[in-house]
Design goal:
With 721 residues, this protein is mainly α. 72% of the residues lie in helices and 2% in strands. Pfam families: TPR_12 (PF13424), TPR_7 (PF13176).
């Protein structure tokens, strides 16, 4: 923690010392997680100094320790940092993409929405550098959606805190217990497993104090799921078994079914297929007794998975067909699609003709499920396509959608995710509601298994589905919470809170990325709007650094448009904010940009002062590439003034720094300008050597435009000679 604090204050020497001391302390205490976190801080420190080999070793060592400690979230963060490191090397783009994709999978597994958003941001930046602009845009849009949802987390946590305080004042033990259970579910979703466990344990104690058997059973069920998530399988099994006993004592049939279903998943995970099958069969009997069609359907689906796992394909097909029939009976199209996907796998194994039918049927189901977004947007005012369901449309289907044929995504593959734009959402005439759940294969909402004493705030919201088509109805709530229940036929399903992560700040950063993408595509109006919107959100979030970088981006945009007054104002405002934030690196970059602007205006004295000041700050921030860029800029300025000795020294110094930072592009540019300088002073042999070196380096990183420039110079040189 001390190391991180020193880094934030730009005290890098102190940061390294503090982190090394902490690492030694954690080694002596045999604390794997502590060591891994110390190595992560050291890796980030080395990255900042451009000591990339040392940084990579630190990240790799941290990754190994997080694997040993079975920390999914730790591994995800290590991979994210490794991806960022590899992104700095043009020849390691494929490795960087794999690191980000692996990090994304682990962040999904850890239910860390902010982590996923950042992985998508990084992938978007990678795709931009590879000129894969459609993939970049999709990554940035997905990241933006995840960050938007963060506001719900903040609001949810505040609501739970307020409720807990009120229940304490009223000495309502049961109310406090339910609040703590809500906190546990919130922390689970955020991947804060220690906080979640404490909340569930505290809720369990209070439910014992209130003699609520059903409340205790549900707490134990939640603890079992948490232990499963951590791979603490013995603790998970004990929790589920204890929950089962208490649900029996409370005569809660659906609760017992859910416990057995959870136990079956645990046994499947341990490859104890006989125990898993028995648990599923027992759960099935209980769901039949409770007349829960959805519970029966999900159990049949998992029996299908189990039989498929043990190569009993005929039994698997029978179970899955039963599940499909039950899903159709209650119009649960999302679940039906999930079962169809398993059927596809069986058909692929058996190479049967039925595969084509199931493939088409799956697409049909998913197209119909597209109405989920429209429903949740109209009723709740939120977009929800990122939560557990992937809707799909075909090119043919898009012809019936406004703007569908023009939609960029519709032209890339036969079946793609639909656009998030409202113009691409196709209303479906079927008024049956389709639910969006975090876990589409969950057996049944826990709402039905909790009595009014255990869940005093659970209310079934019984409004007609037709309300979304403009006809009179009861007014639904405008925000989702874990206590909203939506009717599907005669079954009531609990809709989990649609959480996300990092709120306003995340949205602002995503808009910043989108602005950069639009800049890259020469869509300057869209870019300006994105940067301005990002600036407003960064102001709202009181992020001084965020505002500074938005202004920096706007300055770059105005430079592209030759709006030099606006550009200068943006860079000067950014510089003031970076000073306010004591960000030496930010100030250095602002001064670098101002230097380029003054060069453009032929204000050479102001330009030289800006570059020299930037160089001093880049040294202070230990930014090797930044120093190289400042010297390269000074070299160009001295060439412009015909001060060739000063120019040569600047380019040579820049070249050394680029070598130190292993920047191939920097070295290539320095060699190219040394070639230009030697051509001007008629040192043709030296000029040719430097230009050929530059050409080889540009080829290495596939910079074709720069290659063409060097070839043109070599041609001029050959004429000169």
């Amino acid at each position: 923690a001390l190391g991180q604090m020193c880094m934030h204050k730009n005290s890098f020497h102190n940061a390294e010392t503090a982190s090394q001391n902490a690492l030694e302390h954690h080694r002596q205490a045999h604390n794997d997680i502590g060591q891994a976190n110390d190595l992560l801080v050291l890796g980030r420190l080395y990255m900042h100094r451009h000591q990339l080999e040392k940084a990579e070793k630190s990240f790799q060592d941290a990754l190994e320790l997080h694997k040993q400690a079975q920390s999914v979230l730790g591994q995800a963060n290590d991979l994210q940092d490794l991806g960022k490191l590899k992104l700095r090397r043009a020849f390691r783009m494929e490795e960087a993409e794999k690191s980000f994709q692996d990090a994304l999978e682990l962040h999904k597994q850890a239910q860390d929405v902010l982590g996923q958003a950042n992985d998508l941001q990084n992938l978007g930046q990678l795709y931009m550098r590879q000129d894969q602009l459609e993939k970049a845009e999709k990554s940035f849009q997905d990241a933006l959606e995840f960050h938007k949802q963060a506001q719900y987390l903040d609001e949810a946590e505040k609501s739970f805190q307020d409720a807990l305080e009120l229940h304490k004042q009223a000495q309502d033990v049961l109310g406090q217990a339910n609040d703590l259970r809500n906190f546990g579910e919130l922390y689970m979703h955020q991947g804060q497993l220690e906080e979640a466990e404490k909340s569930f344990q505290d809720a369990l104690e209070l439910h014992k104090q209130a003699q609520s058997v059903l409340g205790q059973a549900n707490d134990l069920q939640n603890l079992g799921e948490l232990f499963m998530h951590r791979d603490q399988l013995e603790e998970a099994e004990k929790s589920f078994q204890d929950a089962l006993k208490l649900h029996k004592q409370a005569q809660d049939v659906i609760g017992q079914g859910n416990d057995l279903w959870d136990l079956s998943r645990l046994y499947m995970h341990q490859n104890q297929l006989e125990e898993a099958e028995k648990s599923l069969q027992d759960a099935l009997e209980l769901y039949k007794q409770a007349q829960s069609v959805l519970g029966q359907a999900n159990t049949h689906q998992y029996l299908g998975r189990l039989y498929m796992h043990s190569d009993q394909n005929n039994q698997a097909k029978n179970s899955l067909n039963t599940a499909l029939a039950l899903y159709e009976q209650i119009n649960m199209q999302i679940y039906e699609a999930s079962a169809q996907h398993i059927c596809l796998n069986i058909w692929r194994q058996d190479r049967m003709e039925g595969m084509a039918y199931f493939s088409e049927r799956r697409v049909e189901i998913m197209v119909r499920a597209e109405d989920v977004d429209a429903f949740l947007r109209d009723v709740y005012g939120v977009e929800a396509s990122k939560r557990g369901v992937r809707t799909m449309t075909s090119r043919k289907d898009r012809r019936g959608i406004k703007n569908g044929s023009k939609c960029r995504r519709s032209q890339t593959a036969a079946y793609m995710l639909p656009c998030s734009h409202s113009s691409c959402i196709k209303p479906h005439p079927n008024n049956d509601i389709i639910l969006l759940l975090f876990n589409p294969t969950a057996p049944l909402s826990r709402a039905a298994s909790r009595d009014s004493r255990s869940t005093p705030h659970t209310i079934a919201c019984r409004w007609p589905v037709s309300s979304i088509h403009g006809r009179a109805s009861a007014t639904p709530p405008r925000s989702l919470s874990s206590n909203n229940i939506i009717p599907v036929g005669t079954v009531f399903i609990l809709v989990p809170l649609l959480f996300a992560n990092d709120s306003v700040l995340g949205q602002a950063n995503d808009l910043q990325d989108l602005g950069e993408l639009y800049m890259h595509q020469d869509q300057l109006e869209e870019a300006e709007k994105s940067f301005q919107d990002a600036l407003e959100l960064h102001k709202q979030a009181q992020s001084v650094l965020g505002q500074a970088y938005d202004l920096w981006d706007l300055g770059k945009l105005y430079m592209c448009r030759d709006q030099l007054e606006e550009a200068e104002k943006s860079f000067q405002d950014a510089l003031e904010l970076h000073k306010q934030a004591q960000d030496a690196l930010g100030q250095a970059n602002d001064l670098q940009n101002l230097g380029e602007l003054y060069m453009h205006r032929d204000q050479l004295e102001e330009a030289e002062k800006s570059f020299q000041d930037a160089l001093g700050l880049h040294k202070q921030a230990q930014d090797v590439i930044g120093q190289g860029n400042d010297l390269w800029d000074l070299g160009k300025l001295y060439m412009h003034q015909n001060q060739l000795e000063e120019a040569e020294k600047s380019f040579q110094d820049a070249l050394e720094l680029y070598k130190q930072a292993q920047s191939v592009l920097g070295q290539a540019n320095a060699h190219q300008y040394l070639g230009r300088l030697y051509m001007r002073s008629d040192q043709n042999n030296q000029a040719e050597n430097h230009l050929n070196t530059a050409l080889a380096l540009y080829k290495q990183i596939n910079r074709q435009i720069d290659e063409a420039s060097v070839l043109k110079l070599l041609f001029q040189l050959s004429i000169q000679t």
